[in-house]
Sequence to fold (839 residues):
Amino acid sequence: MIPEILAPAGNYEAFLAAIENGADAVYLGGPEFNARYHADNFTVSDIARALEYAHLRGRKVYVTLNILLDDDELLRALDYIFTLQELGIDAVIVQDIGLLNAITRVFKDLRVHASTQMTVCNPEGVRMVTELGVCRVVLARELGAGDISLIRNQCPGVELEVFVHGALCYSYSGQCLLSSVVGGRSGNRGRCAQPCRLTYRLLEEGVMMSSGYLLSPADLCLLSELPELVSMGVASLKIEGRMKRPEYVAVVTRVYRQAMDRLQEYQEDGRLDKWAPTRQENEDLKGIFNRTFTINQWLGKNIEVLRTDRPNNRGVLVGQVVKQYPDEQRVDVKLERGLYCGDGIEIWTRYGTNPVAVVENIHVNQQRVEKARPGDIINIEVKGRCCSGDPVYRTHDRMLIDKARETIVANREENRVPIWIQVKARTGEKMQLSFSDGQGHTGAAMTQKPVEAAKNRPLTKAEMVDKLNRLGNTPWKPQSWDIDMEPDIMIPFSELNEARRMAGNELKEKILSAAKPPSISREVFESRKYKVFGESEFSSVRTSVVSTRKNDPRQPARLSIRVGCIRAARAALESGADRVYLSLSGLNGSACSVDELDKLKDLARGADRELYFEVPAILRSGDELDFSNIREQSPDGILIGNPGALYRFRGLGIDIQADYTFNTFNSETIKALVQQGVKGVCLSPELNRVGLRRIVASHVPLEYIVHGQLMVMVSEHCVMGNLGQCSGECHQRERVLMDAKGYKFPVFTDRYCRMHLFNSRTTCLVEELGELERMGIRLFRIEALLDTVDMVSQTVNIYREALDRIYKAQNPELSGLRARLETVAKSPLTRLHLKRGVQ
Fold:
């Protein structure tokens, strides 16, 4: 099976670039609900136009609805999806589990793809989201050849989509809150401000170990790995780039199309092992945009992923500075590659800002030339200081861009759809005309009047072909002709033109009808929507009811805490925590013996408290074996944060708490998780007061993080490993990344050398506990993975005191408690998103 090439489109011009350069499918976003808010995006009429253009050419269009939605947005999203399925969209790409849950009940035949934002990274994750209703899974970009092959073998009936080219995120997609916490722009809501592309300093005990763009990955390029991807049976090869210009889409799509077509020929000839990308293909990919290229984790752990010296386009090396003239206005450059007038260049110099220029005049041997060749020493105008030996890079390739622009034209002749034209013309009978596309679709027409004998000059076959061949702005081009016409006949040109138009229109309608997936009527849609939302206990259409302690018969709210070691867990239980989540990720280097765990369980149960084990949010294939004996250890429950972990551990007969890494943003997500066996849910920390009030009408016990330094990133890319300083014991040391404003983000690695980045501020909502409790939050969590044993004891004591006050009085005084917590916390306090929310 040859996989589809799936190209991005941030606007209609980029869509044309993708289709006209050979994309089998295009993914794009509408005016809202998509993870590229800052792209131009598509109106509904744009999508309709794109669908027609694609379907007539046998291509597909997928629409992204890959952000988290709050309860107030779910109904609007479903109304929008109804419009999309009426238009005939081929699939929607979804991140939000709640939206997925609603789609599968309302639009039973609509194809849904699980976005890479779902962080599916093992076979169990694929099975889980498939059970939830998806037909295709876009795998996490961190997976390598071995991971994908294992998933393919264990999940043979599921379509797998793999990113092969474009920008990478430093964090696992869907597991990043960095943009959210530093500026309120949520990546999970499509507003990522890309803080990973900024400069940082890595500090250990106050000493700077490194500086630069420490979180900035190179660009992914798996062109060389296409034979293995094809052999695996991957369904789709995805190019990243909805924020990129149309010329970028054109070049990258063309390169992968050409490479795949050539690979197919090698496969048919039994020479697949001889295939390799051409030099020109590699040159074109580098020339259009690159941050240097990486194969990421394709071969396993790869420390050559990050590029810390610069976060933007590097271009292609074209030569070196030979001489700079005293006025610093001109330089001589010896070329390794050709250079054209109109190219953009950048000189990488050791002196501050790199000089950049658009090459307007090139002189070789004092003669002005349009193009200089490799080996030439050229003289060009460049303002700024540089030195002999400084490398010169081409960052704008005029010829490559011009060539790409030539392809961004609708109905290019070389890409028109071939049709077979048949004509039968007999005197006294109406002329019969048919257009066939070779795929079983035929459009037929007849002239209005019978064919007449010619009185003067008869109609020639050449004239017949000429008139029927005037297909204008249609997608058709004649592949062959079968003209059966009597001699000496006459047919008015107007009749020929009208027959041509009618046959073309009928062929068009038949193709579009066949390409359109099944859809439902407005009546069926409204009925199903009412059934899902109108009768559900998790209804999105609800009024916010704030209860009071006087009329509320529920049990007191409880206190939970997540810790990283046995000693901290014991301190939390002794200080009054009702539930302790003991992390098993080895984040702080500690290990737990069986005896220590048994004593801890005895302590918890003797005090009528609960001990849960935390399973890491990221479990790659094989990692889950480290937790295979959880049932024998008999905790009171487990905390999980990923679809794969839910599938793996839901059958153990142990209570499951869904962590905030499920990005629970609405009531439908809660419902979907409960249907899969979850007993409680920790809500997204990105929810504000308004979102919480909508969601907490649920009868399911809900948890909300009210204190601690929030984990904001999980990454396969260890920053120490990238610096060549990974000792295997770096998870035992605390380091910080300091940004340009002086904010310090703690950094730890776990037993798998995955890096975890924590917020620079400590969330503290102690003064808001009463409000949250009246909303219906039943479990208040403290995040204490970074805290000392003494900090754990003090923090739990203060929150225990606050909850006791709330239980005893309707409006207790809590303001003094925040001041006490300020003296305990490692970093300044923040209320995070409770008031402002996220964009």
Q: What stands out?
A: Confidence is low (pLDDT under 50) at residues 537-551. The two ends are 42 Å apart (CA to CA).
